[in-house]
Design goal:
single chain; alpha+beta; five-stranded antiparallel beta sheet; 6 helices; 50% helix
Length: 205
Amino acid sequence: MSTKEDRIKYADCMTFIRYRLEVINLFLNRKITTGYDIPDIETIALQFRKVFELIAMASLCSNREKFEEVRARFDKMWNAAEIIKMVEKFNPNFYPKPIERKFNKDPSTGGTISPLLEGFLTKEELIKAIGRCGDLLHADNPYSENEFINEKWFNRFRDWNSKTHNLLKLHTIQVLNYDIQWWAVMKFGTNEPVQIAEMQKITNG
């Protein structure tokens, strides 16, 4: 059963995601820096890794016992595919579904809401991204012949950043009760709280 407390916890997860994306933006726009590219890249990778993990785990907020069970295992896992597989075991529809809202010429008459079809981070991309972040958070083999290209990483981060914003800006999440969805408004670029609304499935009869 979904409760107000559950929705507050989900909003907290989304708020922490928003904070981390703000830090990522500061690094990408060179407004803050460690003074060296490689530590900057590693710092951004750490923030993205936490963002992606929160996306995976947040949908379990509707069931505290399952959340705690997953959280305990999460700390010991590093393989991205295994992390997603574990979360999917508890909630096969855990991944956010981005939507877009278009107002009529006269906004007072309403508008339409429809699925966003492209330009957002897919589940498959998230899995790959978690793995890439993990690679960066380990010390390099000094004998490795792989070339580390800074600008390639910054370009990859910019792509992830844009797609993650598009994924979460306005999205729905299927909680463990299949008759209920949560609709989330992230309020990027503001200090306003993340908004979460509960939607109940309408049944005939």
